[in-house]
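A reminder from the course coordinator: this example appears on the midterm review sheet, so study it carefully.

Given structure:
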C-alpha cells in the first residue's frame, strides 16, 4: 500500500502549487493564447492534464516507457498548446515518472543498475545532440519519422512472440566483463529467474541512435529501450521494462535541459503534468510487481501502436 503520509504530502503540495500557478497565469499572455485556441476556461486544461498524466503514469510503468511517448501525441493532438511546448513538457513528464518509479523498481530487484548504466550514459550523451536536431527540423518531418519508427518497433515486438523469458545460452564477453546479469523473483509465478544478456556491443551501438531519436522527438527513450534490452540483448521482459523506466531518469535529463534552455517549457503545462505522472507512477510500481509478463507485453504493444499511428497521421497531415 502507498504510504498515507506520502500521498498526503504530494496532494497538499499539488494544491499549493496549483494555487500559485493559478495566480501566476490568471492574467498572463499564456492564458490569452489558450483562450484563443479554445472556448473553455483556461484552468480546465491544467486540471485535464493532471487527470490524463495520472493515468499515463500508471500505464507508463507497466509499459516501461516514460509517459512522454503517449503524452506528446495525445496532448499535441487534443490540447491547445504548440508542439514545441508539448515536447518540452513531455520530456519533463517522462523524467518525473522515472524518478518516482525508479527507487521502487530498484528496491524490488526488477530494475538492474549494471544493465542500465552503460546504455544510459551512451543514450544521455546522444540525447543532447538529438534535442538540438529536433528543435531545428520542421514539425511535420519529426512527426512522420517518429510514427514510422514506433510502428516498426511494434512489428518487431509482435513478431517476437516468446520474449517474456528470452533463452540466452551464453553471455558475450563484454556483458561478462561488465557483470550484467542477475536474479529476480517473479511474483506472478513464484519462481526465481536467472538471466544474462548477449549481443551487448550491438545493443550499445543502437543506444547511440536511441539517444539521438529520444532527444529529437521529445518523448524520452522508453519506446525503444524495451525492444533492444528484451528482444536483442535477451533481458527478461519485466527486467527490460523496469530497467527502461529507471533509464529515463538518466537519458531524459540531458535532452530536457536543451528544451528548457530554448524556452520550450510552460509551467502551466509542466506542473500539473509532473504531479499527475508521479502519483500515477507510484501506483504503477505496485501493480507491475503482480502483473504477468505476457500482460505487460500487450500493454507495450497497444501503447506504442496508438502513439505511432497518431504521430504518423499527424506528420502526413491526415489527422490534425
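Designed residues:
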Amino acid at each position: 500500500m502507498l504510504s498515507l503520509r506520502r500521498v498526503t504530502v504530494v496532494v497538499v503540495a499539488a494544491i499549493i502549487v496549483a494555487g500559485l500557478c493559478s495566480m501566476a497565469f490568471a492574467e498572463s499572455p499564456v492564458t490569452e493564447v489558450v483562450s484563443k485556441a479554445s472556448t473553455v476556461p483556461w484552468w480546465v486544461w491544467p486540471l485535464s492534464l493532471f487527470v490524463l498524466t495520472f493515468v499515463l503514469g500508471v500505464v507508463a510503468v507497466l509499459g516501461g516507457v516514460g509517459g512522454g511517448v503517449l503524452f506528446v501525441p495525445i496532448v499535441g493532438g487534443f490540447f491547445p498548446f504548440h508542439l514545441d511546448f508539448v515536447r518540452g513538457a513531455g520530456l519533463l513528464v517522462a523524467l518525473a515518472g522515472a524518478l518516482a518509479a525508479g527507487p521502487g523498481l530498484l528496491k524490488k530487484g526488477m530494475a538492474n543498475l549494471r544493465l542500465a548504466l552503460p546504455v544510459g550514459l551512451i543514450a544521455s550523451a546522444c540525447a543532447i545532440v538529438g534535442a538540438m536536431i529536433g528543435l531545428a527540423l520542421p514539425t511535420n518531418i519529426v512527426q512522420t519519422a517518429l510514427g514510422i519508427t514506433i510502428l516498426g518497433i511494434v512489428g518487431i515486438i509482435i513478431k517476437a512472440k516468446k520474449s517474456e523469458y528470452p533463452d540466452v545460452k551464453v553471455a558475450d564477453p563484454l556483458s561478462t566483463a561488465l557483470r550484467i546479469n542477475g536474479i529476480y523473483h517473479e511474483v506472478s509465478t513464484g519462481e526465481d529467474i536467472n538471466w544474462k544478456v548477449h549481443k551487448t556491443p550491438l545493443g550499445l551501438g543502437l543506444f547511440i541512435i536511441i539517444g539521438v531519436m529520444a532527444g529529437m522527438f521529445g518523448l524520452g527513450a522508453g519506446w525503444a529501450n524495451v525492444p533492444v534490452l528484451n528482444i536483442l540483448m535477451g533481458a527478461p521482459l519485466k527486467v527490460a521494462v523496469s530497467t527502461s523506466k529507471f533509464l529515463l531518469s538518466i537519458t531524459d535529463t540531458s535532452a530536457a535541459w536543451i528544451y528548457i534552455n530554448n524556452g520550450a517549457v510552460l509551467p502551466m503545462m509542466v506542473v500539473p503534468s509532473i504531479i499527475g505522472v508521479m502519483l500515477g507512477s507510484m501506483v504503477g510500481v505496485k501493480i507491475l510487481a503482480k502483473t504477468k509478463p505476457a500482460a505487460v507485453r500487450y500493454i507495450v504493444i497497444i501503447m506504442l501502436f496508438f502513439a505511432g499511428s497518431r504521430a504518423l497521421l499527424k506528420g502526413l497531415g491526415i489527422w490534425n
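Residues 7-12, 14-33 have pLDDT under 50 and may be disordered. The chain has one domain: 45-315.
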